[in-house]
Amino acid sequence: MTATPNDLRTVDPQLADLITAEEGRQRDTLKLIASENYVSSAVLQASGTVLTNKYSEGYPGRRYYEGQQYIDQIETLAVDRARAVFGTEHANVQPYSGSPANLAVYLAAATPGDTVMGMALPMGGHLTHGWTVSATGKWFNAVHYNVGRETGRVDMDEVRDLALRERPKLIFCGGTAIPRTIDFPAFAEIAKEVDAVLVADIAHIAGLVAGGAHPSPVGHADIVTTTTHKTLRGPRGAMIMATEPYAKAIDKAVFPGLQGGPHNHTTAGIAVALHEAGTPEFSSYAHQIVANAKALADELQSRGFALSSGGTDNHLILIDLTSKGVAGKPAAQNLDRAGLETNYNAVPYDPRKPFDPSGLRLGTAALTSRGMAEAEMREVARWIDEVVSALASENSDTIEKTVGQVHGEVSELTGRFPVPGLG
Residue 223 in contact with residue 250, Cβ under 8 Å? Predict the structure, then answer.
């Protein structure tokens, strides 16, 4: 393609080269990070439009700037599609990302100093569910539930006991490293018993919920928050869905409570992603994500890997490498060199530090977006095993040889499965 005077490569060749290099990296590696995915060409196109030029404080029909004739229609389209896909009464598509979306919930439904409850971060929860290093843990009296040391699963009786003792204003369910189905009805019963607002954070599983591959919190939780990337396969943004009694408070918390004008180009990308999420093809994709995760988990276990909770019900797998004699950080770094992109992650009751933990977190959403299925998951498990075993040998020659060999095999596989949006 011939460059124009305003083309990125002409204006800023250094940045253009970096973007091209990243495109190549995404083509040539297997994205196993549970919080990442690939968007479609349509989502990319919508996200990179002149909509980025428009400022739109307020909501459709109630803006503080003129020239909103088409922006209002775009945001309304995104909202209507969110309500249709998730079956919710109200949706706000303006939050910039997941953490601000959760902050808006606090602003809408709690007062600083109130008691709030969520899953502990080391157990798989999220920073914004009241963890100590987060503003939510500093501004609120946060209490946390854990998973069982032996089971790796939430004990709902313990959750109920904690809720009855602490009487929280908000209860969060969901998190960032939960490989099992979240029992929304049980959380709803507990919240009702203690007169708490139940907030379901489905950032990781939103696409599975939309595709019918995971139970929905709608009808159980008063408020639902989610990012729009991950399994939902949209741009980097967020949404808050709520029952009607919380609708106005949520909207006021987002704007003017926490942010100014929405990012209209992101809203457009969200609208496209939600359109895609409402199709039969997306439902098949969501179910294949789960099938792939189960296949990967089964193969890893057959190779002697210990998995938190003993497996997975969704897209996410959490490996405890303790029995392999390898820490999570060097494992992730060497897997990355071999073309397998993961992230090191704490496991429940991890004796190691968060920046040098015992585990690896894996996800199958992105590989499924490339069209891979169970057979490819078994190959991925074999490669993970080979790299981890080489690391355990502590022989530098063995490590280098294995990493190089696996990288070559990964490159052959990625060449057969194009990246959505890139080809």
Answer: yes
Minimal CA–CA distance to 224: which of 122, 123, 83, 124?
A: 83
Q: How confident is the model at residue 1 (pLDDT cuts 50, 70, 90)?
A: very low
Q: Do domains 46-277 and 287-414 have the same CATH topology?
A: no
Q: Is residue 127 a known part of a binding site? A: yes
CATH topology of domain 287-414: Aspartate Aminotransferase, domain 1 (3.90.1150)
Does the annotation flag 422 for ligand binding? Answer: no
- Is 66 annotated in some ligand binding site? no
Report how far residue 265's alpha carbon sits from residue 344's, in angstroms, rounded to the nearest whole number.
32
- Point out the residues that are catalytic: 55, 57, 201, 227, 230, 236
Parse the chain into domains and list their residue ranges: 46-277, 287-414
77 among annotated binding-site residues: no
Round to whole Å and give the CA distance between 181 and 158.
17
Contact 240, 260 (CB under 8 A): no
At a CB cut-off of 8 Å and minimum separation 6, what does 125 contact? 118, 119, 131, 144, 172, 175, 176
For 239: left if phi > 0, alpha if psi spans -120 to 50, otherwise beta; the answer is beta
Q: Which residues pair with 230 in a beta bridge?
A: none
Place of tokens 């997975």: 312
Does residue 95 have a cis peptide bond before it, meaning omega lies within 30 degrees of 0? Answer: no
The answer for residues whose C-beta is within 8 angstroms of residue 324's C-beta and 6 or more apart is 304, 305, 388, 389, 392
Cβ-Cβ contacts under 8 Å for 201 (sequence gap 6 or more): 98, 102, 126, 129, 172, 173, 174, 175, 224, 225, 226
State the architecture of 46-277 in CATH terms: 3-Layer(aba) Sandwich (3.40)
pLDDT tens-digit map of 114-144: 999 999 999 999 999 999 999 999 999 999 9
